[in-house]
Specification:
Length: 206
């Protein structure tokens, strides 16, 4: 489980073919990996991956992950060199600063608009991010509910059909990769865990 509070921005140092998927080598940036062991789970851009190898320490550390073809099909941004949001798995004693997340990406959305609130002269304030999500998961998105975008826990400010918008405060922009988004960019989406179970319980038995 994860919270959507990004702990560091790392980068994909290498992505090489392995079986039907890829082996990723990730430089963890400022993420403390001294307590990371083989088999641990880490969210990479919101996708839960398992550490399969660990090399080096400190600035030279690299974590390796195997990504299956199915995971590549359901996500975006894991098949090439790029900055990535990183979060280690939640411990029972940790504060739940965001919302409960599984790291199982529900779909890939597309950025429709991304601009400073109040115009170009408000670059030190919050930014409004509008995303169109796949129709099959749009019903799980609700105003004032929680959603994860690229592994970042955010609050939905409004919904219009398959589109929703959120506000990003300066800290979120500084601490994550979301600041680099632009219209047309594709992003990993995980809907609220509770919404999925409510839909299942409220629907017809099958």
């Amino acid at each position: 489980m994860f919270t959507g509070v990004v702990q560091a921005v790392g980068s994909i140092a290498a992505a090489t073919s392995k079986g039907d998927g890829l082996r990723l080598a990730i430089a963890p940036g400022a993420l403390d990996v001294s307590d990371v062991a083989l088999g641990d789970s880490i969210a990479v851009n919101g996708c839960c991956l398992t550490v399969v190898a660990k090399e080096g320490e400190g600035a030279s550390a690299r974590l390796a992950f195997d990504v299956s073809a199915e995971s590549l099909r359901c996500t975006t941004g894991l098949d090439g060199r790029a900055p990535v949001n990183l979060e280690k798995a939640l411990r029972l004693a940790d504060r739940l600063g965001g919302h409960l997340m599984t790291g199982h990406v529900d779909g890939v959305g597309t950025v429709v608009a991304f601009a400073a609130v109040g115009g170009a002269g408000s670059s030190d304030g919050s930014w409004r991010l509008e995303i169109e999500c796949p129709a099959e998961i749009a019903r799980f998105v609700a105003a004032k509910g929680s959603i994860a975008v690229q592994g970042v826990s955010l609050t939905v400010n409004g919904v219009d059909g398959a589109r929703f918008h959120v506000n990003l405060i300066p800290h979120t922009l500084q601490a994550t990769t979301l600041k680099s988004l632009a219209p047309g960019a594709r992003v990993n989406i995980e809907v609220d865990l509770v919404a999925r179970y409510v839909e299942r319980l409220a629907g017809p038995a099958r």
